[in-house]
Amino acid sequence: MQEKQFEMWTEKHRPKDFSELAGQEQITKRLAEFAKNKNLPHMMFAGPAGCGKTTAALVMARSLFGDSWKHNFLDLNASDERGIDVIRNKVKEFARTKSLGSAPFKLVFLDEADALTTEAQNALRRTMENYTNTARFIISCNYSSKIIEPIQSRCAVFRFKPLAADHIEKQLSKIAAKENLKTTKSALPAAASLAEGDMRKAINILQAAAAVKDEISEDDIFEIASSAKPKEVEEMLANAVNGNFKAARENLKKLVIEQGLSGKDVISELHRQVFDLDVAEKAKISMLEKVGECEFRLSEGCDEIIQLESLLAQFALYSR
Ligand SMILES: Nc1ncnc2c1ncn2[C@@H]1O[C@H](COP(=O)(O)OP(=O)(O)OP(=O)(O)O)[C@@H](O)[C@H]1O
Ligand SMILES: [Mg+2]
């Protein structure tokens, strides 16, 4: 029971098989095919955080090598290691011995490759060429545009997408069932939507909520994520555009001072909601422009309350 608290659910519930990976259907289909044939090219996995790149590489290793996958899989992080020489030496050491098991090569996973300089990437390219007979590389990055063309052209490129909210919700339900969690009906959809395509974020929010509550509600999720509840921001926005500036100010104080939300959280939620407002298109455009200006000022370190109040005051000018 106690151990439950200390084990990260992202690790505990990380998929071990291609069939358990949520979303990314086209990608998993091709990867499973490669694994079945024990034949794969060098690959590049590009895409945003928490959508399954590292997981897919680990599943590939399990699927290729079975129980001996750990002997045949080298996990490197481009931003951890001190320079490309360390990477080259580790690859050299690893690729010196033959693979154990049924695949004729070993697997090298290089995470955060977009952190490498162009020079280092050129060295990596040569390493990939030198060990092609004994090792396959999976290069993982958030932005493929930061990877030099000669590497891209040597790899089959897989573009991972942010995960859809319903895929995240389904995965959260599975985890909730395994962990015997009680949740209200709207709690998991809220976590899934807040995560914005990032499964790691969603699972971490759920685990944090589970650590403090026996039954998890939507409110708990918003509180843990310290994110603005859409309903409260909606009320503030409605008050502002209805010319009820004083009430809008009270709403804002509650969000920022009582609930401790950052100005940035409030602005992001406002930005989402301005689109749905029942005001003229032209007014919406001006309001979005003001949201952008306010966001910039906040990022420059201006006072949050003053900036957000000024934004609400400007919204009041568009009162219906
Ligand atoms: N498609 C998915 N299906 C099920 N679980 C997933 C999926 N993607 C991510 N996860 C969960 O989220 C955690 C983080 O995913 P992963 O390490 O694969 O992210 P990543 O794409 O490598 O992100 P980063 O760019 O930050 O390295 C995993 O441990 C797993 O529990
Ligand atoms: Mg990763």
Folded structure, characterized:
This protein is an alpha/beta fold and 320 residues long. It has 3 domains: 24-159, Rossmann fold, CATH 3.40.50; 165-224, Helicase, Ruva Protein, domain 3; 230-316, Up-down Bundle (Zinc Finger, Delta Prime, domain 3), CATH 1.20.272. Helices cover 57% and strands 10% of the residues. It has helices at 2-6, 9-12, 25-37, 53-65, 83-96, 118-130, 149-154, 165-178, 187-194, 199-212, 218-224, 230-241, 245-258, 263-274, 281-299, 304-316; strands at 42-46, 73-77, 106-111, 135-141, 155-159, 182-183, 215-216. Helix 6 links the parallel strand 3 (106-111) and strand 4. The longest helix is centred in the C-terminal third of the chain and has 19 residues, at 281-299. Bound molecules: adenosine-5'-triphosphate (ATP) and magnesium ion. Adenosine-5'-triphosphate (ATP) binds next to helix 2, helix 4 and helix 10.
CATH superfamily of the largest domain: P-loop containing nucleotide triphosphate hydrolases
Number of domains: 3
CATH class categorisation of the largest domain: Alpha Beta
- Give the amount of beta strand, in percent: 5-15%
How do the SSEs run, as a string of H and E? Answer: HHHEHEHEHEHEHEHHEHHHHHH
The count of β-strands is 7
Give the count of helical stretches: 16
Which outline best applies? elongated
Residue stretches low in confidence (pLDDT < 50, at least 5 long) are: 1-5
The oligomerization state is single chain
**Fraction of residues in H or I helices:** 55-70%
Mean pLDDT: 90
Supply the helix-strand structural class.
Answer: alpha/beta
- Might you state the CATH topology name of the largest domain? Rossmann fold
N-end to C-end Cα span: 56 Å
What Rg, in angstroms, do the CA atoms define?
Answer: 24 Å
- Going by CATH, the architecture of the largest domain would be 3-Layer(aba) Sandwich
Bound ligands, each once: adenosine-5'-triphosphate, magnesium ion
